[in-house]
Structure formats: structure tokens, C-alpha cells
Amino acid sequence: MAKSKPSWDLPDLEVPASPRTMRTLRKIQSHQVLTSSNALIAQTQSPRQDARVADFGSLSTTANNTVRAPAHRRARSNSDAATREAVIAPVPTQRRPARKTGSSIGLKRSLLENLLRDGPQNGRTQEALQELKYLVLSTRVDADGDGMSPYRIYLWLILLHVPPFPTDDYLALVHRGGSPAYAKIRNDTFRTLATDPLFKRRVTEASLIRLLNAVAWKLHDSKVKPRSRPSSSRRREMELLVNTPPSIAEEPEPGCADGAVGDTAIYVQGMNVLCAPFLYAGRSEVEAFALFHQFVTMECPGYVRSTMDGVHRGLRLVDRCLEIVEPKLATYLFSKGMHAELYAFPSVLTLCACTPPLPEVLHLWDFLFAYGPHLNILCIVAQLIRMRDEILESPSPNKLLRSFPPLQAKDIIALTVLLVRKIPDDVYAEMVNHAK
């Protein structure tokens, strides 16, 4: 960065008595501040680049371009000053105190952010990816009080293996107008996280409609023109195994002929809530679109089919896992007729995005995208275990389970990691594949 102009020194004059001379000095002072500030801003500003990250190599450049130099503001004139020193000294501006989030955001870059910015060393992509996932689990993504992070969206793009998606292609989908599922989309969007002020302040209903309608067109085109199965599969890492599932286009819906198009196959109720965190965390609609489309087609296609068979398998797994890790609690709930299908359907379908607060949802998703969305089943079980005493003491647990307590992502993640060890291999394998 070029050095700013040195501030000018006023001549050593006596304090003028004339008001006209005082105004002249203030004009000179204002000119000094504006000249030096404008020169500094002109030297430090650089054109914004709209780039999306497909791998660690391009991420370093993109992330560095998002850092902006702080703008120097003009000092406020002191109209009632009586001395030359008062005229020259700028009035200190009051700044809002930084929110305390328990992180060092804005002060010192974390190891996670450094890895994202610098990329893998010596081309060791797999080792860097393993380290990235470990840092997500151990250090947590730095974010402000609203859950916003300058690099979370790039982390998600890497973890979900999202390829670059041209902005023009997204605009072309938007300009096609209403999809066959448009009426259903409009019937759901106005209710999306309706009681969450953070979401309402940042995401408009119009952007949610555009994104869901564009995804509906994309899925519509996939059904009309089936794609071949991707040749590469997702690498098995650690004990959390994720295989690349077939796309929705390859599995025709029950009762539909090959190539037939039905609006229930390209949009199902609940996709609006599942889409919401992508829009909230994304820096643009295009990034949110690329992430959401990749997620529903590659990670959980069974959730968005017309039968929602993946969601129903997930609900049965919630009951089975709860029975394994907490048999007393499971027996009590079953005796009251409380199976997961009665209280956990929204949590399974939306990966707990239906449970506020939204900043905690984002932290939970960091973990799920790093180690597999299938672990959402155990995250729901962890929430039930945290409510264990209240449930066992309640004669009507259905009232407690109508809405889960506010998410506490850190505690839920810690408990989920412990629960993984208690799940038998065959049940865990079902959990990995239930959303395909």
C-alpha cells in the first residue's frame, strides 16, 4: 500500500482574532484532511472481483480480494474553538464497541482462516482437507454476533465440492420465469423463518423465490435430459463415510414414466427452510444457488423426492439410535406413543435449520458439512438427551417436543462425537446412506 501524504504543518502564527481569519484556517485544515484522505483511499481501493472458489488454489486469491482497507473519514470542524490548537486537533469520533463473540475475528486470523487463505502446502490437497475438517471441529468458525463470517461461504464451497457456476447461467434460469413448481414455492416462501429477525433483515422473500425457482428449473431439466452417473466418488475420510449418490435425474419417481415431469419432484415443502441458511451465509445468490443445488442433488436427494423416502428412513434411524444410546428415554417416549415421525420430521428434513437461533445453525452446519450431513441424525438424538430429565418428568412429553430448545451447537457437536462411538457399524452404514 502506498504511503499516505504527510500531514501539512501550519505556520507558527499567533491566534487570529478575526472570525474571518478563523474560517480561513478551518478551510485550510479541511482541505488538508480531505486531500490526504482521498489520496490514500484512491491508492488503496481495488476493483472488486466476483470469483467463486472451486479449489484451494483459487481460494487464496479470492479471499485476499475480500479484504478492504479502512477508509479515513474527514475530521469534523470545531466551530466554537478559541485557540489554534483546538482548530488543528480533530474531534475524536465515537465508535460502536465491538461485539464480544469469544473469538478473535478482526484482530488476529485463526488457523482455520489462514489455511483457507493460503491453501494446501506443496499441493497436498488431501492432507490440507483433513486438517481443515479438524480445525472446523476444534476451533469453530469465527463469526460476529449475527453469525456472519467473511470466509464461511468459501469453507462450505470446499467441503461440499461445489464446482464453479457461471452467473449468466443462474440469470438465464431466473429469466425463464415461473417453473412448474412456482405456485408451491410462493405458497411457502413467506413463512420461511418468519419469526427470525436476523433472517428477515438480511434475506428478502424475492431472493428466496428466485433461488428456489431456479433450482426447480435445474431439476426439471435434469429429469427431462437425464445425466450420466458421475465417474468420481467422494473420498472416504476417517470413519465418517460418504459416497457420491446418484443424481435425482437417474431415479424416476414412482408412478412416473421416464422423462415425465412432476412439480412434486422438483420442489417439496420444506425445501424453503433448507435453502434459507445458504442464502443467509452466502455473499451472493449465485453462491447460495450453487451450494443448495449441489447439496440436494449430491448429499440428500432422498429428502427432495416426492415420497421423501430419505426423510422417513432418517426418522426411523432417530428412534433406533436413541434406543441404542439412551434406552430408558427411548422406552419412555415409545410408551407415550412418541416416535420420531411425530416430532423430528422438520429437524431431519432441514438439518435442524428449523430450530433457532440461526447463528448456531450455521455453526452446526460447519460440522455437518465437514464430517457428513448424515450426522444430523445423531445431532437430533443429542438434543433429546439434553432434554432427558424434563422429558422423563413430564406426563405429556409431546408438549415439550413440539419445539426443541434453542440450539447450542458447541454442546450438541461435542455430544454427537461421543455418540458416534456407540453406534454399531451396520446402523452407522444405514445412517450414511439413508438420504440417497
TrEMBL record:
InterPro entries: Rab-GAP-TBC_dom (IPR000195), Rab-GAP_TBC_sf (IPR035969). GO terms for molecular function: GTPase activator activity. Residues 64-84 are annotated as: Disordered. Coiled coil: none annotated. GO terms for cellular component: mitotic spindle pole body. GO terms for biological process: negative regulation of septation initiation signaling. Residues 146-372 form the Rab-GAP TBC domain. Gene3D superfamilies: putative rabgap domain of human tbc1 domain family member 14 like domains, Ypt/Rab-GAP domain of gyp1p, domain 3. SUPFAM superfamilies: Ypt/Rab-GAP domain of gyp1p (SSF47923). This is Rab-GAP TBC domain-containing protein. It comes from Penicillium decumbens.
